[in-house]
Amino acid sequence: MEEELNSLKENLEKELKNCEKEADVLNVKSKYVGKKSRIMEILSSLKDMTVEDKRKYGSLINNTKKEMENIVNNFLESLNTQLKIDFDDTLDFDVNVGSMHPVTIVAKEVTDILKKMGFTIVSGPEMDNEFYNFEALNIPKDHPARDMQDTFYLDNSMLLRTHTSGVQVRAMEKYGAPLRICVPGRVFRNEDLDASHENTFFQLEGMVIDENISIENLIGVMQELLREVFHQDVLVRLRPGFFPFTEPSYELDCSCLICGGKGCPTCKNSGWIELIPGGMVHPNVLRAGGIDPEKYNGFAFGLGLTRLAMMKYKINDIRVLNSGDIRYLENFKIN
Ligand code: FA5
């Protein structure tokens, strides 16, 4: 037993040394201390041991599990610090010769804010299947909600993801509960283009699963996020919304910062921009991710990152962001 526990620890340390990104560490974490890991198997075998063995091995097994968790968490922390230093160094060096795309700047800002709140950044595939993009999200075939997002279907029976929500069930399957993730990423829709609609744009999914989560937690996260991004109070409104994967659902709109809410082509003269829909995760979605809805609940939101960049930098037409016009993009510097 001691030998096996020691070798589990050693192997964990060895595999961590090869991790360069947070996502790699999370994979190793799930392999070594996740629900289906060997240490959890050993831990659950304790109950079938004789009293004598329980006494002999109980604390050893528990301590090893804690040590392994600490090893992973410490590694994750040092990796994040390291990444931050690298990023800052690059900035110092590059700041006069180049600039970042406004969506990249805003994505970094939002993920930094969410990281401070304990969210982990994860990613998912841009080419996905119908199961994760629709069915696992409580949108069966022929459900009218499929028409809400015009989908690019591919020849290989896959599709280009229409939203980052496809990562919800993937993450639940992989990491289980509790869970606190955010997923910035590119999404695709067969849309008619106008000042606020692109066919290729960025969203950021957020999801928290735990015991006793309420809509107030979601609103708290939204308030904090918007305050930090805009460095000022921005007028927002909440409306009831509909998404098959959340119940209840809402839409959060932001007063159009291009026209100050008076009405302009960007907001289609409404004075408002749809920015962050969300709601409480539907029990069917938790079940699809292997999570017991009797024990856990949670919230999810789908922030329109490209639209957030437009509001923050007062960009009145979304199409310039994919234009690749460096003369325009050079105007954006990190502050
Ligand atoms: C969704 O995509 C849901 N997956 C969001 C969600 C996640 C709801 C989790 C509940 C829980 P929607 O289609 O409204 O919802 O898109 C979300 C945001 O993406 C919009 O509010 C908007 O800010 C942005 N968006 C949508 N379509 C476009 C487009 N064509 N161009 C630019 N931004 C867009």
Could you characterize what this model shows?
The protein has 335 residues and is of the alpha+beta class. 43% of the residues lie in helices and 18% in strands. Strands 1, 4, 5, 6, 7, 8, 9 and 10 form an eight-stranded mixed beta sheet that branches. Strands 2-3 form a two-stranded antiparallel sheet. Helix 1 (2-17) packs antiparallel against helix 2 and helix 2 (22-33) runs antiparallel to helix 4 (51-94). The chain is elongated and about 75 Å long. Bound molecules: adenosine-5'-[phenylalaninyl-phosphate]. Adenosine-5'-[phenylalaninyl-phosphate] binds next to strand 5, strand 7, strand 9, strand 10 and helix 10.
At the first level of CATH, the class of the largest domain is Alpha Beta
The CATH homologous superfamily of the largest domain is called: Bira Bifunctional Protein, Domain 2
Distance between the termini: 55 Å
Mean pLDDT: 90
CATH architecture title of the largest domain: 2-Layer Sandwich
Query: Which kinds of small molecule does this entry bind, naming each only once?
Result: adenosine-5'-[phenylalaninyl-phosphate]
Q: How many domains, in number, for the residues?
A: 2
- Determine the number of helices (DSSP H or I, runs of at least 4 residues): 11
* Radius of gyration, whole Å: 22 Å
User: How much helical structure, as a percent, in the residues?
Assistant: 40-55%
Shape: elongated
User: Under CATH, the topology of the largest domain is which?
Assistant: BirA Bifunctional Protein, domain 2
**Segments where pLDDT lies below 50 for 5+ residues?**
none
Order of helices and strands: HHHHHEEHEHEEHEEEEHEHH
What's the number of extended β-strand segments? 10
Biggest sheet record? 8 strands, mixed
Report the structural category: alpha+beta
Kindly estimate the percentage of residues that lie in beta strands according to DSSP: 15-25%
